[in-house]
């Protein structure tokens, strides 16, 4: 019998293995039979959005039959005032994930090298593969920090067109300050664009984020409303950089990727600085609580400047077992996928009640036979 015809999938896509960067907690609920997971794995805000943002989004629902403004003029104007630049330096998109895909398309062609840290935020590597570029990776240092000099060397050796750096980093939580980033930027080859993912910038040390240089054509930075602003479900982020680089995004972006309700919520959220300050303060307190928990349990934690903390379980096998053990106890966490961080679990900072529930489940799971990490 003649085989049915197959769809003519493009060779770049046909050659890819089936993959998903993330397994969502909703899927874990379906497969585990639980509907009450404590969500501490996706780094969503446990403290929710600004009440002003919720009110603005409810009001915007009255006009949900209308498309949103494809230029996001009001939001870009507010962002531009904060950054001290013109709105032509900013483009909005459906979260940073959408903007990473656009960046790969804007700055690389099939076969070009794109550099990142092995085990950093996986969506970048996902898009590099999907658009036919070539991924070049550098491991984390043994202490979980970024190896900036090695990344710059890899960019030069591979003649990379794009280098992705999350700062503060995900999943380690480490942070390179403005001085370190300036030296790193100077070490990159001129044809390589630095794509700086600042999803966790609000949690970084005060004054540590490098100031925006709108005249530097070799740096594009991204921010999100998913973390400190508590609007992960609304899917809204923005990229900012040299006007000509941002113009490249505007040539290929989905004009209606940002919906009307998200625009209204983000604009109101951005104006509520007091709410963000409270979230940042609560998160810092939660990180300290997690560090103290690790000390009580005899587990090292990585220094973090984000809204999560990594606990060291000692080996990949023990970390994987702990993720499963916590899931059985109704707690969703994730773990880094590549060495040297693959022996850790990464836990989002929850509310005080959520942190207490996690501490109880974690302590119970560690006390189970065979669960205690070996000393190292």
Description:
The chain is an alpha/beta fold. It has two domains: 21-48 and 274-367, Aspartate Aminotransferase, domain 1 (Alpha-Beta Complex); 51-271, Aspartate Aminotransferase, domain 2 (3-Layer(aba) Sandwich), CATH 3.40.640. Helices cover 40% and strands 13% of the residues. The protein contains 13 helices and eleven strands. The protein has a seven-stranded mixed beta sheet, sandwiched between helices. α6 (122-130) links the parallel β3 (113-117) and β4 (134-138). It is globular and about 60 Å long. The model has no long low-confidence stretch (mean pLDDT 95).
Topology diagram in text:
Elements: H1 11-14, H2 25-32, E1 38-39, H3 51-60, H4 73-83, E2 90-93, H5 95-107, E3 113-117, H6 122-130, E4 134-138, H7 148-158, E5 162-166, H8 178-187, E6 193-197, E7 219-224, E8 237-241, H9 243-252, H10 260-271, H11 273-297, E9 308-312, H12 316-328, E10 331-332, E11 344-348, H13 352-367
Parallel strand pairs: 1-10, 3-4, 3-5, 5-6, 6-7
Antiparallel strand pairs: 2-8, 7-8, 9-11
Helix pairs in contact: 3-10, 4-10, 5-6, 5-9, 7-8, 11-13
